[in-house]
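Supplementary Methods, section 5.1.

A reviewer requested that the exact input to the structure prediction be made available. We therefore reproduce it here, unchanged from the version used in the analyses.
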Amino acid sequence: MKFGYFDDINKEYVITSPKTPLPWINYLGCESFFSLISNTGGGYSFYKDAKLLRLTRYRYNNVPCDNNGRYFYIKDSGTVWNPGWQPMQTPLDSYACRHGLGYTIFESSKNDLAASVTAFVPIGDNCEINKVTLKNKGSEKKEISLFSYIEFCLWNAVDDSTNFQRNLNTGEVELEPSVIYHKTEYRERRNHYAVYSVNEPVAGFDTDRDSFLGAYRSPANPEVIESGASKNTVASGWSPCGSFHLKASLQPGEEVSYVFVLGYVENPVEEKWESLGVINKRPAHAMLERYNTVAKTDAAFAALKDYWNNLLSKYTLETEDDKLCRMVNIWNQYQCMVTFNMSRSASYYESGTGRGMGFRDSSQDLLGFVHLIPELARERILDIASTQFEDGSAYHQYQPLTKTGNMDIGSGFNDDPLWLIAGTSAYIRETGDYTILDEMVPFDNKEELSAPLIEHLRRSFHFFDYNKGPHKLPLIGRADWNDCLNLNCFSETPGESFQTTGPNEGPVAESVFIAGMYVKYGNEYAVMCEKIGLAEEASEVRDKVADMYQAVLSAGWDGEWFVRAYDANSDIIGSHQCKEGQIFIEPQGMCVMAGIGVEEKLAEKALDSVKEKLDTKYGIVLLQPAYQEYHVNLGEISSYPPGYKENAGIFCHNNPWISIAETVIGRGNRAFEVYKKTCPAYIEDISEIHRAEPYAYAQMIAGKDAKNHGEAKNSWLTGTAAWTFTNISQYILGIRPDFDGLIVDPCLPDTIKDMTIRRIFRGAEYVIKVENHGGHQKGIRKIVVDGKEIEGNLIPIEKGKKFYNVIALM
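The structure derived from this sequence is encoded cell-by-cell as follows.
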C-alpha cells in the first residue's frame, strides 16, 4: 500500500494522505540552521546544536502523535482548517505534501480556498522561511483570517523540559510591527536571540502561549482561533510563543502571499556587552529585509534548488531501472548530506538532547558524503580527531557546538580509533589531498597536546599494540560497532585504555569484527604512509596486519563462518558451539571486505552461511538464533526482545557490508538482491508494513523473530545511508576512488546490460559508459579512455585534464 509517489523530475516525494503510518519527515537546512518538518507541519528548529540552541519546542512520545510544529490556521466562513491537516485535523478537500531537497511544500484546499505553504531554509542565512499563499477558487468573495503559531523553546532543550521552577519566570519578548523577538537568556548571554516575523501588517499578535491556547486547551482548539481575534499578549515568564493574525479579502481567482521568517541572530561581537533593555536589532533587520517580498523569497527558493541540483550532479546514474536511479541520483545522496550534518543527534527518534556527534558515526558518514563537499569533510575529520586521546582512544561522542567530548558517554568503544583512519582514507582517495596529514590537531581539545593528523592515525593504529587479548585479537572494550555487545570489558574512566599484560589480567574480551577492521583499514593506513614517504612504517604496518590476518584465521573461524568475539572469560561468541547467537552478521561482512579468507575459499562459505541462516524477505538479521533471555556476560544486546534492534533485528547499517562482501567474490546478483531488500524505493509498495518513509533508509527493521516482522524504526539518521551509497556507487556500480585515480570495477546483476555514470572526481568530469550485453556479473574486459585502450581498470589522472570519456566492456 502506498501513501504517495515519487516525482523524479522535481526530485520530490509527494505524500497524498496526511495519515501516514508514522510521521514522514524532511530536513530543512544544510549549513548551520536546521529544521525538521513532518508531512503534517510538525517538527522543530535549531541553530548548530539541537540541545543547546533549540528555537522551538517539540513534544516527543506524545498523544496525539507529532505534537508541535509550525502551524497555520485558516478561518473561512466559520470553518477552521490547517494546510498540513494538523493540529485541528479538519477533513480537507485535497491534500499533498511535497518533500523535496531542503524544502517541503503543502498544497491543500477546503471550500474552494486553496492554500500552499513552502517551507525552506535559504542558503547563507540562519532562518526558516514559510511562504503561505491563499487563492480563492470559488465564485464568491471570501473574507479570510490567517493565524500563524510557533512555540519558543528556552534554548537549552534539556533544561527547557525539566527546570520549570526557573523557566516559568524567564520568558521574555520584544515587539516591533509584524516582528516578535524572543530574547529569553539574553540577560545571561546578551549576544543571541530568535526573531519571528511576517512581511505584511498584522491585525493582531500573541506571544503568550497560555493566553493564545486558553486554559486546558491545546493547539487543536486554541481560544484565539475560536474567537477569531488575537489578544495582543506580551509574554512575561511562562511559555512564550509567536502568533500573527492577518486578514485577507479575496475576490474569485484572487490570491495573496505572506512570508513568515523564523530566525536565529547574534549581535556583532563588539556590541555583545551593550546595556540591557533593548537588543541590537540591526542584524535581524538585515535578515528580514532579504525576504520581505515574495519576489526575494522566490529567488532564494530558486537558489536553494540550484544548489542541490549542482551538488547532486557530482555522481549520476543512467540505466533502465528507475528505482535504482532515483535512489542513487537523489534520495541516497540527500540522506548522506543529512546524516553528515546531524550525525545521530536530531530526528524523530533521536531527541537532539543527548548524543551529539559521534566519533564512529561521523567518520562513517564521511564515506557517503566526501564526494559532495570535500572541504567540509576535511573540516569534520579535524573536528573528530581533536576529541581523540593521546593513547589513540577517543570520546565516543562530542557536542557539535563546542566540539568537546561528551563526558557522559566517555570512551572505551575500541572500534572508534580505526574509523578515523577510514574517514581520512576516504577523503584522501577522493581528493588526493595529503596535506591534511600535516594539519596540527590537538588531543582531547588541548592545544598544548597538538600533533599532525598523521600522528593521530598512527596512534589509532598502534592503539591495538597494547590492547590485544589471549587470542591476539583486539580487545573489544566497552563495545565495538555493536554498542550493545558488552562483554564485561567496561571502564567508567574516560580515556582509560583497556590494557592487558596477560590472558588472566584485566578485561580480556576480544572482537573479531575489530580484527577485520584492523586488516582493512590497516592496509589503507599503510598506503597513506607510503604516499608521504614513510616506507619503513608502511612495511611495519603491513607486518602487523599480516599477523592479525592470521589471528583471525586461527581464532576467528568457526568452520562455516567467522566467530563474533570472545567474552571476558574467553568463552566464544557467535559460534556453532553457542545455544543462541551462533552467527553474527558483522564479522562476515567486515572480514570479507578486508579480504580475509578470500584466497583460502572461506569467504564464500561465510556468505553462504549468511544467506542460509540470517536472510529474510525484508533483509538480513544481525544474529541467529535470537537471544530468548538476558545474559549478563553479553550485556545490552540480550535485553531486547527477539527480533528487535541488536537482538536479531535487521540492522540495515551492516546489510551493505554483506552486499560489498558479495562483490569482493564477484556475485553481482546476490549483492544486488541484498541491496534491494532494504532500499526504500523497492519497498514503497509495502509502506503499511514498513511504516517509515519510503524515501529514506531506516536504522532497523524488525527481524523474523519479531511480532511485526518488516516494520522499520529510527529512520534518517543512520550509517546505513553512507554505507549503502558506498556499496551501490563504488562496489555494485563499481566507480571507486583510489589513491592513484578512479577505478572502474562493477559487480552487477545480470539484469543491468548498460549504464552511464557521470562522476566529478578531483576537478574533472568523467562520463563512464559500461556495456554488459552478455549479462556478466564481474570483470572488465576492456577500458577505452578518450579513444585509447588502457591497461587494467584504473584510469590514470592526467594533470590539467577536465574531461574523460570512458567506455568499459564487461
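The first helix runs from residue 157 to 160. These observations are discussed further in the main text.
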